[in-house]
Design goal:
By secondary structure, this protein is an alpha/beta fold. The protein has two domains: 131 residues, Glutaredoxin (3-Layer(aba) Sandwich), CATH 3.40.30.10; 232 residues, no CATH class. Helix content is 66%, strand content 8%. It contains 16 helices and eight strands. A hairpin with a 2-residue loop joins strand 4 and strand 5. The longest helix is centred in the middle third of the chain and has 33 residues. It is elongated and about 85 Å long. The N and C termini lie far apart (83 Å).
Length: 409
Amino acid sequence: MLSFLLVLELVLVALPSGAQAQDAAPAFDQTRVHLYFFTSPTCPHCARARAFLTPLLADKPAVKLHDFELDGDPIAERAFVDLTRSFGIDPPSVPLIVVGGQVFLGYDTDASTGAEIEKVLQRCLQSPCVDPAAPIIAAATREAEGETPVPDVTINRTGVPNRLSVPLLGEVETKSLSLPVLTIVLAAIDGFNPCAMWVLIFLIGLLLGLNDPVRMWTYGAVFLITSGVVYFLFIAAWLNLFLFLGTLAWVRIAVGGFALLAGGYNLIEFVRNPDAACTVTSPEERRRVMDRLRDAVNQRSFLLAILGIVVLAVAVNMIEFLCSAGIPAVYTQMLSLSDLSTPAYYAYLALYIFVFMLDDAIVFIAAMATLQASGLAATYSRYSHLIGGVVLAAIGLLLILRPELLAFA
């Protein structure tokens, strides 16, 4: 009996107490810092953030990096959507870095964003930090593995910093740079579209024969305003399509290929079509349009004339969109790559439409003021094929090879 008690005592001494066992177990979540890094393969800021984090974390074994690439990975996209919703981030964009309860959206420079990340890491290594992202990502992983559909949320890829440090000028907003310039250039090229310009020139010829200034100005203004509204609706539809599908690499590559084809077509048209005639509509279709336009202008009823011009403007712009779909499609794909708010997207579309309609407005106003139609529109239309072909081909190559260069803000 005594020997049995001695053996039992030895066993009890050898076994650790509950508290000792708890201390001996590795406290993984308490002793390590978790850094969550959401990126995109087409995001240049993500690459810069990674270039900073890689050497920084190399000598910090206590920091665990959770790397999520948003390129078709359902777990990464589910985690990204849930995290951004939980933290109230709208619109969501990358790079997104979460560490110690701190959220870093975008990446500026190593001296600014990088230094802030390093400060948080040092603080969390010295004393444990909360990790609110861990349960969110764990739940998102379980949902994704259970094949729960990812919510319909657009993931924006941040292209360049919101501010650039320019010598002598200081901090400059990137939103005021390349995107407005490209918007103006592409819209101006798109505006000299022979498929709509010939209708405007014919309408001006009819209006000049009315000898009624009120009707002349009203009919022309109705045609221009209707054309602008219809075209705005067309390109807004393109934009929303690309905001929905634009995160898919194959969509970007397909649009880039389409831009190359459209650019080549414009260059061919510059060579073989010196008169800048619309090649989409046949002579018979053009004759029908002219007859209907003539009937509308000669209507005795003012309201019926306006209604007829509105209907014809809608029809003409549908034809025009087929004639130059390459430019608005490429522009809206490029616009969708930029991290902008919804009002900003539509502000750029409004700028595009303003410039797009400006050439038509100038031709119309000049004709009404001088009472004669100008033949300069055809010349400009021809050279717009040349400039448009070069610009579209360049953008197509960038969409395929270097899309990050087209993500402006």
